[in-house]
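Troubleshooting log. The previous structure file for this entry was overwritten by mistake, so regenerating from the original sequence record. Sequence copied from the archived sheet and checked twice against the printout by T.R.
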Amino acid sequence: MERFDRRSFIKVGSLSLFGYLSFGDALALMAAAPAQSAPKRQVSVIHLWLSGGISQIDSFDPKPDADVKYRSQFKPIATNVDGIQICEHLPMLAKMADKYCVIRSMTHKIADHAQAMTYIMTGREPLPTIQVPAIASVISKELGSPNELPSAISIPTTTGPWEHAGFLGPRNNPFSAGNPNAEKYKVQDMELPMGVEWARMDRRRSLLNLVDDNFRRIDRSGISESMDAYYKTATDLMKSEPAKKAFKIEEEPEKLRDRYGRTGFGQGCLLARRLVESGVRFVTVTRGLTMWDHHASIFSLLKDDYLPDLDRSFSALLEDLGQRGLLESTLIIMTGEFGRTPEINAMAGRDHWPSVFSAVVAGAGVRGGQVWGSSDERAGFVKDNPVQIPDLLASVYKKLGIDYQKEYVSNIGRPIKLAANGRPLDFLF
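Regenerated output below.
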C-alpha cells in the first residue's frame, strides 16, 4: 500500500484495508509517503557534426612540444580541470571541461570523405549493394517520436546519403530544418497557401491518394513511399501548433541568441536545444558538407572563424541545457569523420588523417572532466586506449535503451547488426 485517498478510506472503513488504523493514522501515513516523482525524460542526442574533419592538434589535443613541422601555431590553455589543456581559441569550453569527456584516441583507416562519413554515421564501411541506415534513422525507427515532430532532424540539412535511412525506408530519413540564422527563418512549407483551408487541403489529399494508388502497386523504386512519408511529415507539422512552435527560434530572447552566436551553426545549436526540449530524439547540427576540410590556410580559418564559432555555440549549448535541467537527458557528441595530418602542407593546411582524431562527448550521465586515450607526440597515431567508431555507436544505442546487438535484415536479405561488432565504452558513463 503506497498511496490512498480519503474517499478510498471512507469506502473501506477500518474493517479491512486499514485494519485497526484510525483515519488520523492513515492520513499521517499518507503524508509520510514519498511523493511521486515526475516521469524521467527520455534521452535525446545532439550531434555536432564537423563535416570535413577538425584538426585534433589545433583543438582538443594540443602538442606544444612537437617539432615545428607539426606544431600548431596556437598555444594550449588550462581548463577548469587540473591537467587538461585545450586550444587557446576555445576559452569558453576550457571553463566547462568538467562537463565533457575528450576522447583523444578515435581511430579508423578510411581517408576518403564520403566513405569515412558513412563509417561515422553507420559504424560500417560502405557496401556496394546496401545502404546501411544511419544512427539517426535507427533511433527514429526504434524509438519513434512522442508527438507530431519528426524523431530525427538535421540542421540545416543532411550532408549526404550517409545520414539517410537506407533500407529502413524514407519515413525514417531525418527532416531538414533549414538555416535558423536566415532572416525571418521559417521551416519551408509549414503553412497552408493563402486562401486554402484544411477542408480543401484534405479533399486534395484524398484525390491524390486515389490517383497515386495505381502507381504504388507497380512502384519498386520506393519513390511513392518517399513522397507519402514527406507528405505525412509536412501535414503533421502544419496541423500541429506545438510542433510548429518548436521551430520558432525568434521567440528566444535576443541576449540568448547572441550568446549562441549569430551564425548558422550557433543558431542551429539553439534550435537543437528547442527541438530536444520538445521531444525530438536525434538532432544533427552542421555548418555544411566538408566545411572543416582545411587543406589550406588552416590557422587563419580556425582562429578567425571556425574555432570561435564552435567555442561559443558548444559552450552555450552546455550552459543552456544545464540551466534548463536538460543536460542529464541530452547526449551531445562532437566529431568529424577523421582528423588532420600532423604535417603542415605547402598551402599552410593539413590533409585527411583517420589514424587518430578527437571527439567530445557530454551530457546524459557522461563522466565529465576526463580525457580518454592519447596520441603520440605528433598527434599522428594512437598511443593508448584506441576507440573505434562501432564502440561509440554501441554506447549511444545502449544509453538510449536500444539493443546495440540487434540485427536488421537488409533489402537483399543480409543481416546487419546495429553497431557492427562494437561494444559500449564503459569509461563514458
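Residues 1-21 have pLDDT under 50 and may be disordered. Archived copy saved in two places this time.
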